[in-house]
Amino acid sequence: MVYQLIRKFRWPLVFATMLSILSAAFSIGVMVFLNQQISKVGLGSENYNIDVLVFAFALMGLGVFGVLSQYILSRLSAGFTAQLRRFMVGNVLNTNYEGIERVGGHRIYASLTSDIRSLASAFSLLPHVAYNSAAVILCLAYLAYSSWQLFVFVFIFLTLAIGFAQVLMNRGMKLLKGLRETDDNLFNSFKALVEGGKELNINTNRKQHFYKDLVVPHVEEIKRKSVHTELNFIFIHNWTNVVLFGVMGSIVFLAQAVFTTVPVEVVVGFLLIMIYLVGPISSLMDMYSVVAGGVVASKKINSLELGTQTGRLADHVDSKSSELNDDWQSLRVRDLTYQYPSSENEMYQFGVGPINLDINRGELVFVTGGNGSGKSTFIKALIGLYTPNSGQIYFDGKCIDFDSDREWYGQHFSAIFSDFYLFQHAIGKDGQLASDELIHQYLTKLQLDKKVDAQDGELTSVSLSHGQKKRLALLLSYIEDTSIYIFDEWAADQDPYFRKYFYMTLLPELKSKGKTVIAITHDDAYFHTADRVLKFESGLLVEVTENDGKSVANPKVEVVL
Ligand SMILES: Nc1ncnc2c1ncn2[C@@H]1O[C@H](COP(=O)(O)OP(=O)(O)OP(=O)(O)O)[C@@H](O)[C@H]1O
């Protein structure tokens, strides 16, 4: 994913790099020019005015190309970061729910924040890397030109020194990887800190345990690993300095004892360039930690495999591909099974099915069963949030292919899960924000008109009780106006009055409009209002009770397509 993005920016990156190299060439040019001028000190120069003009021109080039490359670079870096954010969010949105659940919210959040930052920093350094590399290469070329004997010595010395630094660099990469892994744990703690705010606030023992046994060990581990990693890069930095000054000292001593034929001004020029080289080489070594951090971040983002489950990788959000089937008449489930993927933390893998079931247009179906019997799991597989391991779902005879039809098929459902998230914008079937008038009608219907208002399709307040929030979620579902409604224990938080209103008025009303309702519920007092009650036990559909009271144990459905 990151590689694709870098490819997208390759031409502006090449342009900024070229400008950086030009800027480097000018700075080396100034150095070389000054070096040559030193030899004229005390002798006078015939071309004095021309020399001053050339120098002024070189300074101008240095400034202009410097500013230009830095400006293009900052624009490029901001553009890359923005594109990376869009890419990441787009790919999270285009990733199957299963994939999101597998990765875990905290890991996605960690990537959205720390990995994007690390990558953007590394990306913005690329032209600086080019600048400094160019400076080093040009300097070495000039050194070779001024004295090949001294250059051969410098080259061998530097090659050996870089070889040793490489060992430290590889170690640094490993340390950075380890450091990044601990970030995920810390983000998990941050998630608990925010989401478990109430529980932590009320319970001092829990607060203590959370702080001392969960957060502090993670923070300390990060501190320890950071110091360790930093120490590695400090070694690299100082090793570089020692090597460079070592080379300079050796040149001076070798010039006295071995290379006695090399003129003094060549040795002085050589040293001048070497002193200049300290800057670019040290910068390159310092940048290595940032670039390596970017490589680690890129690998981390790729390991999430966002968007790859759907085969799409994009900086946009997929939209409905074709017209919905609003006239559908039957939804048939055949031998459907779904098993959660294995994980280290789970004692066993829960699965549902094989399940056979026919649901007709306009039916009111209740799903019941003990906690953990698989009701929600089945519903998630039914509506395409989970991909069944085997079996088929036929929507009006069309066998749903979860690779190509998932998006389209999912559009026929509006769902309120027990752990729902309440969005503030009401979006209609046409994808547009609903009119405030329509929102008001539903606010009145759901007895929230005194608490909530609407402005340009947005609910003005969602600071409500949990039961009231669920009513707002119902309002959003109404406005979505799909043909199938899924309610996962919707009435569980409602007062007796509203619970009755839900079962006796709202659900029959939806049915009378031709909507199909599948509601997970434990409210047996209202089971008689449903057309059918499906009972789950240990992942299996064990009983179907028809509204005439007829009960069918272990129902087998005739396959009629
Ligand atoms: N994300 C998950 N990963 C792995 N296993 C899961 C996951 N979610 C649920 N399970 C397993 O599936 C089983 C059934 O969960 P499910 O949510 O379908 O039950 P349910 O019938 O809806 O229960 P409840 O009435 O308590 O909501 C659980 O006991 C659990 O072992």
From TrEMBL:
- According to its UniProt record, where is this protein located? Cell membrane
Gene3D superfamilies assigned to the protein according to its UniProt record, in alphabetical order:
ABC transporter type 1, transmembrane domain, P-loop containing nucleotide triphosphate hydrolases
Pinpoint the ABC transporter domain residues: 331-561
Q: Which GO terms describe its cellular component?
A: plasma membrane
Q: Which Pfam families match?
A: ABC_membrane, ABC_tran
**Does Transmembrane count among this protein's keywords?**
yes
Spell out the molecular function terms from Gene Ontology: ABC-type transporter activity; ATP binding; ATP hydrolysis activity; peptide transmembrane transporter activity
Q: Name one GO biological process term.
A: peptide transport
Entry protein name: Cyclic peptide transporter
